[in-house]
TrEMBL record:
This is FAD-binding PCMH-type domain-containing protein. It comes from Penicillium canariense. InterPro entries: FAD-bd_PCMH, FAD-bd_PCMH-like_sf, FAD-bd_PCMH_sub2, FAD-linked_Oxidoreductase, Oxid_FAD_bind_N. Pfam families: FAD_binding_4. Residues 1-15 form the signal peptide.
Length: 506
């Protein structure tokens, strides 16, 4: 797609005041949409372009690549007034000083996988894309990684050392977003969530100050960054723990519709598994339904540390008659290499809720979802998936015993996070799909509440934009997060100017 630009932003940017005055209210049309250029954006884009080379404007050749192609969800494609790709923490710091002094609205993008508009992109504001932060330093027991990396990069760098980190399960999920919101990996049951494995953050605060945060230095912020998302600053380096896991045992299994109730029973059993000396093991467990052919299938991607073959922790799945079962012993890098999540495939709506592992209730949810999908079978490009994630007691126990904790405050109990991930093709169906997905999730959750098996916990990585994850954290944790925010972001840069994503309310 070629940009059609009604107005060239930088042609007139001879001086900051002039830019602000001349461009206020100017309508800019990009390949993606139109926006009115605000005084703040004109000021910030003008100052950035006078300070740094390579600021991308709506008429730059690579504008669409940055404003659209870098996003997973087509709905996240927006029209920033300009795009800055910093390559050092000093440049991020300078940018934040500029945003603050210009009162400019901005968005931050890591791997671009958060799936809703505004969480990582912005219409008419400044987009800060972190893709140049690609440094990786493997150390003894840890690895330092930049926020421009995806998880495959980390697994690849660690492979020669026989080490593994706790990150994303698929290849191209971004390191920063996942680490800041929690992080479901295969090995949570033994090592905790990705956030529990971050031992240090280099972060730039809203006023441009750069600090290093760890258990000893700024321990309050260290805790708040474990699940606190994009509420505190921009992380320019994560230091992650690594583990001695040279090989993994994997299984890919596909089941036809008659096996789905047993498949969901195996998911419940996997959630409840809580051994004294656990073997690290976990999965991606999904049900796909084709509303045209009326055929449902379930699939399991299971990974376990070590070389036990077939992987012992998936015996409950392996006992179900399957269409496909492929077991293998490989490395984390090799496994992740084939699990790409291509960007720009569709528009996507997530809705998710949490429950105790209850087989009958989970099967009822699956059946209700399938019936509900039939009601929207006419939607163009419909791609409905029912996803389950398990939050085991062992995973919560890591934060309960490591002397740090995290903002989730989950007790050592098993839970199942159930999610509708719905893809479709046309913008005209956006509101319909949101209403459908939201109403269905809320109705089924209400039944679980009535049965006493619902949890208020909401994971940001599985949630729709209509959901409030903070409402599911313990109230005292949210109060503490607010106190910490008021001391590290007193001017509210990460709520007032960077307002997209899951934000602690003011
Ligand atoms: C196909 C797919 C598969 C997924 N698989 C998993 C999985 O296996 N496990 C799991 O836990 N989750 C998973 N998720 C959810 C995923 O973790 C979140 O979407 C996460 O936010 C992605 O991180 P990102 O860097 O790619 O996202 P981005 O969209 O770039 O960022 C997410 C949020 O973090 C902010 N942010 C980004 N970088 C920084 C930074 N350096 N400092 C401060 N804020 C920043 C952004 O502004 C945005 O609000 C998956 C999502 C998708 C779409």
């Amino acid at each position: 797609m070629k940009c059609s630009v009604a107005f060239s932003l930088f042609a007139l940017a001879s001086a900051e005041i002039a830019v602000a005055t001349i461009l206020t209210g100017t309508s800019v049309t990009t390949s993606l949409s139109s926006f009115n250029l605000t005084k703040g954006a004109a000021c910030a884009c003008g100052r950035l372009s006078r300070t740094y080379d390579g600021i991308i404007s709506p008429n730059s050749a690579n504008y669409t690549v940055q404003a659209a192609d870098a996003y997973w969800d087509v709905r996240a494609d927006l029209s920033p007034a300009c795009i800055f790709l910093p390559s050092t923490a000093d440049e991020v710091s300078k940018a934040l000083e500029i945003f603050q002094s210009c009162d400019a609205h901005f968005a931050v993008r890591g791997g671009g996988h958060m799936n809703y508009p505004g969480s990582n992109n912005i219409d008419g504001g400044v987009l800060l894309a972190l893709e140049k932060f690609k440094d990786i330093k493997v150390k003894k027991g840890s690895v330092e990684v930049g926020p421009g990396l995806v998880w495959y990069d980390i697994y690849k760098a660690l492979e020669p050392y026989g080490r593994a980190a706790i990150g994303g399960r698929l290849k191209t999920i971004g390191v920063p977003g996942l680490s800041l919101i929690g992080g479901f990996h295969y090995f949570n049951n033994k090592y905790g969530y990705a956030m529990d494995n971050v031992v240090g953050y280099d972060i730039v605060l809203g006023n441009g100050t750069q600090i290093t945060v760890n258990k000893k230095s700024h321990p309050d912020l260290f805790w708040a960054l474990k699940g606190g998302a994009n509420n505190y600053g921009i992380v320019t380096k994560f230091t992650l723990k690594t583990y001695d896991i040279p090989k993994v045992s994997t299984t890919i299994q596909v089941f036809n519709e008659s096996g789905i109730p047993d498949f969901l029973a195996a998911v419940c059993n996997a959630a409840k598994l809580d051994e004294k000396d656990p073997i690290a093991a976990g999965m991606v467990a999904t049900v796909q339904y084709n509303a045209t052919t009326k055929v449902a299938t379930a699939s399991l991607l299971g990974v376990q540390e070590g070389i036990s073959q077939p992987p012992s922790q998936f015996a409950n799945f392996s006992a179900i008659p399957s269409i496909t079962q492929i077991n293998n012993v490989t490395t984390m890098r090799q496994w992740a290499s084939s699990l790409d999540t291509p960007k720009q495939m569709f528009r996507v709506m997530f809705s998710h809720k949490t429950m105790k592992p209850d087989h009958d209730a989970l099967v009822s949810i699956y059946k209700a979802w399938k019936e509900a999908v039939d009601q929207i079978a006419d939607v163009e490009g419909l791609y409905p998936t029912f996803v389950t994630n398990v939050a085991s007691a062992g995973a919560a126990r890591v934060a309960l015993t490591n002397g740090v904790g995290n903002v989730w405050g989950l007790e050592a109990e098993p839970y199942i996070l159930w999610q509708f991930s719905t893809g479709w093709a046309l913008a005209q169906d956006d509101l319909r799909i949101e209403a459908w997905s939201r109403q269905l999730a809320e109705r089924l959750h209400a039944i679980n509440v009535e049965k006493g098996i619902a949890s208020p916990f909401i994971y940001m990585g599985d949630a729709g934009e209509w959901q409030d994850p903070f409402a599911g954290f313990p109230a005292e944790n949210v109060a503490r997060m607010r106190t910490i925010k008021s001391s590290y972001d007193p001017l509210g840069v990460f709520s007032r100017l960077n307002w997209g994503g899951f934000k602690l309310s003011l």
